[in-house]
């Protein structure tokens, strides 16, 4: 994918394309001065989208919530998609090297058609890009990260806006999956599936 992103806030436009990687599911993406919504971990205690996100570009933390049984990143992403998010930007933490994520995105991966609902794009933000987006007048990115850890956290409409232009090679194809079942000697409600 070829991506450019410009951060627009209280100053000159700041290019951040080296700190963000985006997948545009329609092939082309052009956002102009969109204000993202910071949704923390993305879901409430019941695993539902933590805010009204339909048609919004949201920023969600990659780190797992520090509570027993908390949903993982994929489940939280799926909840935001189900709620109608337009785009999801995942803010990485220091434990995940951004270069490794760039390589993973660049290699591409098949996805089931329709799985992403109305989602136009998703992407990953480096810690530097996330810090630039989360900071605001009189508040640091660390302040907002700390607020997101509290159970009473409320999503925040950010002061910064972003403009993103991205192009992604999208190829649609039919995939034929073969599934075979080996019943084994005992029937205990378990199965081994071989796919190819």
What does this protein structure show overall?
The two termini are 28 Å apart. The chain has 196 residues and is α/β, with parallel strands linked by helices. The model has no long low-confidence stretch (mean pLDDT 81). The protein is built from 4 helices and 12 strands, in the order E-E-E-E-E-E-H-E-H-E-H-H-E-E-E-E. It has a 6-stranded mixed beta sheet. It has a 4-stranded antiparallel beta sheet with strand order 2-1-10-4, with no helix packed on it. Strands 11-12 form a two-stranded antiparallel sheet.
Residues in β-strands, percent = 25-35%
Q: State the assembly state of the protein chains.
A: single chain
Calculate the mean pLDDT score and round it: 81
Rg result: 19 Å
List the keywords.
single chain; 196 residues; alpha/beta; six-stranded mixed β-sheet; four-stranded antiparallel β-sheet; 12 strands; globular
SSE order and pairing:
Layout: E1 2-8, E2 14-15, E3 20-24, E4 28-34, E5 37-38, E6 57-61, H1 73-82, E7 87-91, H2 98-107, E8 121-125, H3 127-134, H4 141-148, E9 156-157, E10 161-167, E11 179-182, E12 192-195
Parallel strand pairs: 5-6, 6-7, 7-8
Antiparallel strand pairs: 1-2, 1-10, 3-8, 4-10, 5-9, 11-12
Helix pairs in contact: 3-4
